[in-house]
Each structure stands twice: as C-alpha cells, then as structure tokens.
C-alpha cells in the first residue's frame, strides 16, 4: 500500500510539466499536500519506535553531525567540528569523574 502511494505521487509529479500550465500549480500543490499527509502519517505511526532506536544507538550524535556537515559552508563546518571537540572533552571529563566516585 505504501509503495503504491509513493508510485502514484511520483507519477503525478512527473506529469506536472506536461499538462496545461493553468493546472500545473494546482496539481503541484495537491501532490505536496499528499506528501505532507504521508509524512505526518509516517511520524504518527513510527515515533515511538524511532525514539527507541535512537536511544539504543550510541553513535547517533556522530551520525547526525556526519549528515549535516557536508551542507555547511567551511566556516560553519569548523565551528561544528570545534563544538564536537568540546563535547568529546566534556564526555571524557564526565567519564574521569565517574571513576573518581568509585
């Protein structure tokens, strides 16, 4: 069912440039609304499972940073890398403190 909806949306999107100009905007808006509806449905039905997967994945921060980094300009990349280094130092300090308590 999900693949059928995706295929239908893809077909409608592909048709847009080939229909009368006066209908293109209406069809494009309709397709986007259908896509948004599917996105909302996805997050409504999978939110709990996704949250659990995130909590179980210790590399989630690094995965997030790796996904974002290529989309930043050079200056922002340097800033993000610096922030990551600070977070890593903070994690190391917390680890050291936890050994002191034992």
Largest sheet: none
Number of beta-strand segments: 0
Question: Roughly how many Å is the radius of gyration?
Answer: 22 Å
Q: What share of residues is helical?
A: over 70%
Instruction: Report the structural category.
Output: mainly alpha
- What is the N-to-C succession of helices and strands? HHHH
Pick out the low-confidence regions: none
β-strand amount:
under 5%
Distance between the termini: 55 Å
The averaged pLDDT comes out at 85
Q: Overall 3D geometry?
A: elongated
**Domains (count):** 2
Regarding quaternary structure, how should these chains be classified?
A: single chain
Any overview of this molecule?
This protein has 102 residues and is mostly helical. It has two domains: 1-56; 58-102. The chain has helices spanning 2-15, 21-56, 60-68, 74-101. It is elongated.
Notable traits:
0% strand, mainly alpha, 102 residues, 85% helix, 2 domains, 4 helices, single chain
Summarize it.
Helices cover 85% and strands 0% of the residues. It contains 4 helices and no strands.
Write the layout of secondary structure elements.
Elements: H1 2-15, H2 21-56, H3 60-68, H4 74-101
């Amino acid at each position: 069912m999900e693949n059928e909806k995706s295929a239908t949306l893809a077909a409608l999107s592909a048709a847009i440039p080939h229909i009368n100009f006066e209908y293109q905007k209406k069809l494009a808006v309709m397709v986007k609304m259908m896509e948004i509806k599917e996105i909302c449905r996805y997050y409504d039905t999978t939110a709990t499972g996704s949250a659990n997967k995130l909590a179980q994945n210790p590399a989630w921060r690094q995965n997030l940073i790796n996904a974002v980094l290529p989309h930043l300009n050079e200056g922002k990349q340097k800033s993000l890398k610096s922030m990551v280094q600070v977070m890593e130092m903070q994690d190391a300090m917390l680890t050291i403190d936890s050994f002191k308590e034992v």
